[in-house]
Inverse folding.
C-alpha cells in the first residue's frame, strides 16, 4: 500500500494507529488525522461522484468549505449520518465511512453516462424538459427525479444519541481561534471581561499554527512558535472559556448566537456510549468579535475538477500539519503569493513542484525565496486543460495575452499527479452578514468586506480583508482596544516580519482556445454548475444573482457555495459588463455548516417533545380504555371502546346512552377565567354580544364573543357567583387567547375599569353529567341539595359540599339534555369522577368522549367555534341574531356587524343538511354545489360537521352555504370522487326544538 | 432574537413576549357614529414603516402586562420602552 505520509509532525501521534473502513476496505491512519488526511496518506483522492454528471471527484480542501469529500458515516438503521465532510471528521477507531452519490461504486459509476450526454443537460434542464405533457409530472417525472435526487441516506430508526442545550451569557464572544481571535480573546479576558473563545477545530491556532516559512516571523520566532506561546498564555486566563470543536451555526440579532459543540464524534464507538454527543450553545454576548478567517478560492479553467486537484493552501496544511503529501509531482497554479508558501514547503520536504502564475511577474520576498531555491515558475501562463480520469496525470498550459482575455503561443504539456490552485482569498463574512451587517467591495483584490455599523460587533483578521500577518496583528490590536474601550499594551513592541504581496491579477473565467460550450469549467463542484451554465442563464435573460443562483443551482448545495459564489458573481459581472460590487451577493443564511436535527431538538424528544396537559381524571380514562384526542396541549378522551368496538359503534352507543339514561363527560379542559371587580358586569357587557347587567346572582348565561371585525371568536357560559364575581368558561383551545385578548382591552382600552382576570382552568376539575336520569344521580351525590326546577332551574348555579369538599354545580347543557356540571378543586377531581361513576351505576351512566359530545350538540344544532366557524362567520351568519343585543350602545365587534360586507345577504350562512339517503354520512369539508353540469361549477359552501345520529336514526350535518338562510327545503348536491350525494337544506336544530328535554 | 426590557420585569428574551402590532391606535369611543370608511381605518389600516415604529408588546409568558416599544425596523434596535398610557418619547417622531 502506498504511503504518502512523508514526515512527522507534532499534531499526528504516530504511536496511536487507528484502523478505519472506507467503502468497505480497511485502512490505517493516526490519532490527529481527519478522514481526509488519512485517505490522502493512503494515496486516495477519488472520494465521490458529482451530483449531475457523476464525474469522479477528489478531496479539494481541508475544512468546512469542502464540496466533494462528503460521506456517509456508519450504516446502522438508527445511527448513520449523511453529508459529513471528510475534511472535518476526526478519525477514530472503528470509523466506517462510504462515498455518496455513486452506484454501484465510486470507481465504476453507471451515472457517469451523464458526463457524456452533458450537452443535453444544460442549466434549467429540469425546468425545460419536464414541462409536458402536464399529466406526466405527478406519475412519471417526479418519482423518477426523486429516485436520482438527494445526497446520502437518512437513518430509518430513532436516534439513540443524547443531545443537549445550554444557555450562556458572556461579555465578549470571539468566533475563531486563529491568530487574530487569540489576540482578541487575550485582550478582552485580561481586561476582566468574561470571554468565550470558540473554534471549530480540535486545536486553536488557525492556519498560522503550522506556518513554517522563515520569511514570516514574529519577535524573531517562526510565527507558529510565537502563536503556540500565546495559546499557552491564554489557557491560564481565568475569565476566558475556550471551546474547541465548536462552530457557530447562526448569528441572530441582539448578539444571540447558536453554536454546536461536538463532544463525542471523534471518539471510538465504545467511548461514545451514554455521553452527550453534541451540545447546542445559546449564547448571548454583549460584544462579538468575528475572526473567522478566509478561504482560498479555486480557479475556473477547463476540467478543473479532476481528483488530485486541490486548493494550494490545503496541500500545504496536509503537508505541514498532517505530514501527508498530496502527490509526488505537484504543479501549483496561482494568481497570488500564497501558493509560493506551499511550493517552498513542498520543496523543503523534497517534493518536486513547479508554479504556473497568471501574473506577468511578481517580486515579493516569497517569490525571491522560491526563485533562489530553483523552483520553476511559469509567469503569465494559464492552465487550459487537465487529463486523467480517476486522477489527474498531466495538464496543458499556454501563455496569456497582454490583456489576459485570450491565450497565445503553443500549448505546453506538463505531467503531474497533483495540482494545487489558488485564486486568492475570500473573507468569511458569513457571520457578519447573518447578523444583518452589510458589505463593501474592494476592487483591488475583488473581495467583499464587512461594513462596520454596530457598536456590538467587529470583524478582525483575514475575514476583515487583512491578509498579511503584520496587517492582521496591528489592525486587530488597534480595533480591539477601540471596540472594547481598553488600553492594552501587550503587543506594543511585537516585531513582525512578513512578505508583502505586491502584484495581483484576477481573472474569474480563465481564457481558453476551446469554445466555452465544449469546456467543463466548474464553478460549483457539488452541484456541477459550470461557467457555461452561468452564461446561458444570462443569455436567457436572468439578471439578478438570486435568480441566476436558483436557475443554475450554483451555491445551493450543502456547502452553500463557499467556494463558488464569488466566481459566479465575477462571471456575471464580466459577462454583463457591470462592476462586481454593484451586483450584491446572495444571502448568507444559517447554519454555516449543516446541523443535525438532534442538536436542534436537544432533550425535547419522546415524552419531552411537547407539553402534555392531562386532567385529574386522566388515569381513570386510561384504565377504562379511552382513546384520546389532542385538543391544544390537552389529552381529551375521544371515545371509550368496549369489547373491541370501533369508533363508530362506540360513539353510537355512548350517544344513545346519554339521551336514554345518563352520560358523563370530563369537561375539565374548558377554559375558566375568574373575573372579579366592581366593574365586572360592565366589562362582560363590553366583551359579549348580549347583555349582562341584569343577570341575577346564581344564574348562568351563554355568551358569544366577537373580534372587532364582527366575526365570532369564542363562546361559553359565564356564571354570576356574587355581585362582583363571575366565572367565565371558554372553549378548550381558545382559553389562552381569550385571556390575552381580555387583558389587552382591560390594560389598553379600558384601564379605568376595576376588573381583575385570573386563569383558573387548572384549578378546577369538571364532571358533566347529562341525560334524563342525571337528576337522580345528582340527588345521590348531593342529597341535601334541592334539585327541583323551582329551586335549581336550567341556567343556574348552586354551591354544595361533597364529603365536606366545596363544589360549584351549574345546571347548564351542551347536549340538549337535562345536565349538570360539577366543579371541584382539581386535587379532588379523580375522586369526584369515581363517585359519580359509582352513583350512576344503577342508571347505566356511560362515560362519553369528545366525539359523542360533538354528535350530541350537533343534533341540537349548537355550534363549535373553530369547527362550524372559521373566523369569517358573524352571529347572523350562524343564524344566532337572537344573541346580539340591539340595546347595548357598544361591544367588541358591534360596529362591524353593519359594515357593507357583513350585511350582504349572500354571505355563507350556517344551515342543516339532510341526506336523501338517511344512511349516507357526508364528509366534513366536502364542497356543496347546486348544479354539477355548469362549468366552472359554482361552489356554494362546505360541510362543517357531519354525523350519523343514533337518536334520530339518520345522517345529519351542519354546513355553511351561500345565502343558506333562504334555502330551507332546497335540494343541493355534494359531488364526491365517485358519486354525487343529494341533500336537502334543513333547520340547524335536528332534535327537541321545544327544549323539552332540558327540563325532563 | 430581541432582548426586550419589560418595564415591569426587566430584560428578557423575545420568546417570552408576543407582539401586538402598531401602538397608539385608540379604539373609537363612539363606533356607531362612524362611517364604514372611518371604522375600516381604525380596524384594518396599519403602518408598515422602514425606520422608527411604535409597537405594542405583551409580556405574555411573564407578567402578562402590555406596554409600548419604539423600534427601528431597519436594524431591529429597540430604542425605548414605556408603559401603557404614557406618552411616547418626543425624540422619536
Amino acid at each position: 500500500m502506498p504511503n504518502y505520509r512523508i514526515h512527522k509532525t507534532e499534531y499526528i501521534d504516530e504511536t496511536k494507529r487507528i484502523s478505519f473502513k472506507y467503502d468497505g476496505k480497511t485502512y490505517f491512519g493516526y490519532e490527529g488525522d481527519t478522514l481526509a488526511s488519512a485517505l490522502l496518506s493512503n494515496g486516495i483522492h477519488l472520494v465521490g461522484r458529482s451530483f449531475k454528471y457523476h464525474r469522479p471527484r477528489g478531496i479539494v480542501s481541508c475544512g468546512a468549505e469542502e464540496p466533494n469529500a462528503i460521506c456517509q458515516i456508519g450504516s446502522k438503521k438508527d445511527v448513520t449520518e449523511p453529508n459529513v465532510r471528510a475534511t472535518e471528521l476526526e478519525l477514530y477507531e472503528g470509523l466506517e465511512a462510504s462515498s455518496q452519490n455513486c452506484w454501484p461504486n465510486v470507481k465504476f459509476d453507471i451515472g457517469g453516462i451523464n458526463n457524456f450526454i452533458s450537452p443535453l443537460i444544460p442549466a434549467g434542464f429540469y425546468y425545460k424538459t419536464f414541462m409536458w405533457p402536464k399529466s406526466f409530472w405527478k406519475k412519471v417525472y417526479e418519482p423518477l427525479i426523486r429516485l436520482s435526487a438527494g445526497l446520502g441516506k437518512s437513518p430509518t430508526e430513532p436516534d439513540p444519541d443524547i443531545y443537549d442545550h445550554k444557555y450562556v451569557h458572556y461579555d465578549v464572544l470571539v468566533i475563531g481561534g486563529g491568530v487574530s481571535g487569540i489576540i482578541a480573546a487575550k485582550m478582552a479576558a485580561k481586561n476582566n471581561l468574561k470571554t468565550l473563545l470558540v473554534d471549530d477545530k480540535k486545536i486553536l491556532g488557525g492556519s498560522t499554527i503550522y506556518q513554517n516559512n522563515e520569511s514570516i516571523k514574529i519577535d524573531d520566532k517562526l510565527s507558529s512558535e510565537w502563536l503556540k506561546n500565546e495559546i499557552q498564555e491564554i489557557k491560564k486566563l481565568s475569565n476566558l472559556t475556550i471551546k474547541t470543536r465548536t462552530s457557530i451555526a447562526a448569528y441572530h440579532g441582539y448578539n444571540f448566537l447558536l453554536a454546536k459543540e461536538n463532544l463525542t464524534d471523534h471518539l471510538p464507538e465504545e467511548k461514545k456510549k451514554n455521553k452527550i454527543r453534541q451540545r447546542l450553545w445559546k449564547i448571548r454576548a454583549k460584544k462579538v468579535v468575528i475572526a473567522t478567517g478566509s478561504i482560498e478560492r479555486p480557479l475556473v479553467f477547463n476540467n478543473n475538477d479532476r481528483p488530485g486537484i486541490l486548493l494550494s493552501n490545503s496541500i500545504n496544511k496536509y503537508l505541514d500539519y498532517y505530514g501527508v503529501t498530496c502527490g509526488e509531482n505537484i504543479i501549483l497554479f496561482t494568481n497570488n503569493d500564497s501558493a509560493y508558501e506551499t511550493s517552498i514547503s513542498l520543496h523543503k520536504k523534497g517534493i518536486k513542484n513547479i508554479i504556473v502564475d497568471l501574473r506577468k511577474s511578481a517580486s515579493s520576498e516569497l517569490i525571491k525565496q522560491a526563485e533562489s531555491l530553483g523552483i520553476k515558475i511559469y509567469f503569465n501562463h494559464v492552465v487550459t486543460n487537465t487529463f486523467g480520469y480517476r486522477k489527474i496525470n498531466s495538464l496543458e498550459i499556454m501563455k496569456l495575452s497582454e490583456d489576459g482575455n485570450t491565450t497565445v503561443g503553443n500549448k505546453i504539456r506538463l505531467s503531474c499527479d497533483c495540482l494545487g490552485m489558488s485564486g486568492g482569498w475570500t473573507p468569511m463574512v458569513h457571520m457578519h452578514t447573518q447578523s444583518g451587517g452589510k458589505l463593501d467591495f474592494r476592487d483591488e483584490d475583488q473581495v467583499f468586506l464587512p461594513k462596520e455599523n454596530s457598536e456590538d460587533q467587529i470583524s478582525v483578521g483575514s475575514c476583515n480583508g487583512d491578509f498579511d500577518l503584520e496587517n492582521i496583528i496591528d489592525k486587530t490590536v488597534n480595533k480591539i482596544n477601540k471596540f472594547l474601550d481598553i488600553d492594552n499594551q501587550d503587543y506594543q513592541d511585537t516585531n513582525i516580519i512578513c512578505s508583502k504581496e505586491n502584484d495581483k491579477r484576477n481573472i474569474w473565467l480563465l481564457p481558453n482556445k476551446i469554445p466555452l460550450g465544449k469546456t467543463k469549467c466548474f464553478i460549483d463542484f457539488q452541484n456541477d454548475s459550470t461557467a457555461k451554465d452561468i452564461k446561458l442563464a444570462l443569455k436567457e435573460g436572468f439578471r439578478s444573482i438570486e435568480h441566476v443562483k436558483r436557475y443554475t443551482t450554483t451555491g445551493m448545495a450543502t456547502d452553500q457555495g463557499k467556494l463558488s459564489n464569488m466566481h459566479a458573481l465575477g462571471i456575471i459581472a464580466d459577462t454583463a459588463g457591470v462592476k462586481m460590487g454593484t451586483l450584491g451577493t446572495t444571502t448568507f443564511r444559517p447554519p454555516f455548516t449543516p446541523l443535525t436535527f438532534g442538536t436542534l431538538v436537544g432533550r425535547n424528544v419522546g415524552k419531552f417533545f411537547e407539553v402534555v396537559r392531562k386532567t385529574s381524571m386522566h388515569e381513570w380514562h386510561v384504565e377504562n380504555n379511552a382513546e384520546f384526542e389532542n385538543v391544544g396541549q390537552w389529552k381529551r378522551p375521544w371515545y371509550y371502546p368496549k369489547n373491541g368496538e370501533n369508533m363508530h359503534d362506540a360513539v353510537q352507543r355512548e350517544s344513545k346512552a346519554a339521551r336514554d339514561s345518563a352520560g358523563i363527560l370530563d369537561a375539565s379542559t374548558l377554559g375558566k377565567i375568574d373575573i372579579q371587580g366592581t366593574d365586572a358586569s360592565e366589562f362582560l357587557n363590553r366583551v359579549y354580544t348580549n347583555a349582562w347587567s341584569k343577570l341575577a346572582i346564581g344564574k348562568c348565561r351563554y355568551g358569544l364573543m366577537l373580534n372587532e371585525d364582527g366575526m365570532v371568536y369564542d363562546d361559553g357560559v359565564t356564571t354570576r357567583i356574587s355581585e362582583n364575581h363571575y366565572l367565565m368558561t371558554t372553549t378548550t383551545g381558545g382559553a389562552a387567547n381569550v385571556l390575552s385578548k381580555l387583558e389587552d382591552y382591560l390594560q389598553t382600552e379600558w384601564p379605568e375599569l376595576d376588573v381583575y382576570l385570573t386563569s383558573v382552568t387548572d384549578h378546577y376539575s369538571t364532571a358533566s353529567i347529562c341525560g334524563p336520569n342525571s337528576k337522580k344521580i345528582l340527588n345521590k351525590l348531593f342529597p341535601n341539595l334541592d334539585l327541583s326546577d323551582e329551586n335549581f332551574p336550567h341556567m343556574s348555579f348552586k354551591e354544595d359540599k361533597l364529603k365536606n369538599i366545596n363544589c360549584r354545580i351549574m345546571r347548564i347543557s351542551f347536549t340538549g339534555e337535562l345536565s349538570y356540571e360539577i366543579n371541584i378543586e382539581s386535587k379532588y377531581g379523580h375522586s369526584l369522577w369515581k363517585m359519580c361513576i359509582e352513583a350512576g351505576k344503577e342508571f347505566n351512566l356511560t362515560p362519553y368522549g369528545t366525539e359523542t359530545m360533538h354528535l350530541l350538540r350537533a343534533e341540537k344544532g349548537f355550534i363549535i367555534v373553530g369547527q362550524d366557524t372559521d373566523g369569517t362567520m358573524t352571529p347572523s351568519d350562524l343564524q344566532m341574531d337572537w344573541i346580539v343585543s340591539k340595546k347595548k350602545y357598544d361591544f367588541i365587534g358591534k360596529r362591524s356587524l353593519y359594515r357593507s360586507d357583513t350585511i350582504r345577504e349572500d354571505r355563507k350562512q350556517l344551515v342543516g343538511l339532510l341526506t336523501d339517503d338517511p344512511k349516507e354520512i357526508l364528509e366534513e369539508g366536502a364542497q356543496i354545489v347546486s348544479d354539477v353540469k355548469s362549468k366552472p361549477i359554482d361552489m356554494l359552501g362546505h360541510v362543517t360537521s357531519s354525523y350519523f345520529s343514533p337518536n334520530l336514526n339518520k345522517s345529519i350535518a351542519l354546513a355553511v352555504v351561500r345565502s343558506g338562510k333562504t334555502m330551507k327545503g332546497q335540494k343541493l348536491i355534494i359531488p364526491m370522487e365517485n358519486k354525487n350525494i343529494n341533500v336537502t337544506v334543513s333547520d340547524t336544530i335536528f332534535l327537541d326544538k321545544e327544549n323539552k328535554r332540558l327540563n325532563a | 432574537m430581541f432582548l426586550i426590557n419589560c418595564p415591569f420585569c426587566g430584560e428578557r428574551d423575545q420568546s417570552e413576549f408576543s407582539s401586538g402590532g402598531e401602538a397608539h391606535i385608540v379604539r373609537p369611543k363612539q363606533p356607531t357614529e362612524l362611517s364604514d370608511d372611518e371604522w375600516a381605518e381604525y380596524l384594518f389600516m396599519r403602518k408598515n414603516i422602514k425606520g422608527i415604529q411604535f409597537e405594542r408588546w405583551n409580556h405574555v409568558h411573564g407578567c402578562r402586562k402590555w406596554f409600548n416599544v419604539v423600534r427601528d425596523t431597519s436594524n431591529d434596535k429597540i430604542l425605548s420602552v414605556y408603559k401603557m398610557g404614557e406618552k411616547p418619547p418626543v425624540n422619536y417622531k
In short: The first helix of chain A runs from residue 35 to 41.
